[in-house]
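Ticket 4471: requesting a sanity check on a complex prediction with flavin mononucleotide. Repro inputs:
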Amino acid sequence: MRTLQELLDLRFGDIGVVPELLAGNEAIRRLAGRGVVRRFKPEPLPAAVLDTLAAVALSSPSKSDLQQRDILIIEDASIRARINSLLKDQDWISGCPHLLVFLGNNRRQRQLHAWRGHAFANDHLDAFFNTTVDAAIALEAFVAAAEAAGLGCCPISVIRNHAEEVSGLLGLPDYVFPVAGLGVGIPATPAFVSARLPLGLTVHRDRYTDATDEKVRAYDKRRNGIFPYRAQRNVARFGEAKEYGWSEEKARHYAVPEREDFGAYVKRRGFSLE
Ligand SMILES: Cc1cc2nc3c(=O)[nH]c(=O)nc-3n(C[C@H](O)[C@H](O)[C@H](O)COP(=O)(O)O)c2cc1C
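Returned structure tokens:
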């Protein structure tokens, strides 16, 4: 079993000495050693497990205590089958025993205004942003709790590739939208620790410091030393690169448009994005 020091060194390169206060903490060690799981045993979890994890997830912080996020647990086999078929490009999703959808919900807040007779005076981008952040926090809290219980999870943003169809299937009204799906179950394969950018690029002190190509290339190299990419993305369009790492993979990924219609969908849900 790897220690917290070993896990963080593996993920970030040399991280320095982990202080004693944290080094022996099992909860922190587990958080540092986590990873997504996309292969699951077929056994379903008792409903009470998902409900309890949802309760723990919704115990996480919420912007101004507005509680603008909900969790939708898909139980109906026909709805699930329709969603599996929409997401069939990622075939692992149909093998998840459970599929949940984390929703941003600004509708309830607007209902409070109608019920209490006060105009809603914040009909601008912040309303969408706050609900998204709240839902993302609950998503992560759910993942952390599920992983602490030995379960496996993988968030699913491709659900937003079909935001309109998914909203129809799940009966989402105006001002309620999917932020991400989440596949959950008992892992069939162990999670692995994927290397992250060095803290020198992602933790700043006092002032922001920009990334450099050189430092990102060094990360590519370190990462490839642990888990090199098995295949290059979209070789037909971009060709075979001599050196292929994270930065080339991510630049190729976002050289192709994704979810270009999401802004229009969010506006149709009623949000003003100005
Ligand atoms: C908001 C969010 C959406 C994601 N969407 C998908 C997805 O649609 N499909 C997928 O296979 N993985 C998805 N992932 C999982 C990431 O690919 C994964 O977290 C990342 O590769 C890092 O791996 P790790 O979590 O094991 O460290 C998503 C993760 C997050 C946080």
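Notes from triage: The domain at 47-191 is CATH 3.40.109.10 (NADH Oxidase). Leaving this open until the requester confirms.
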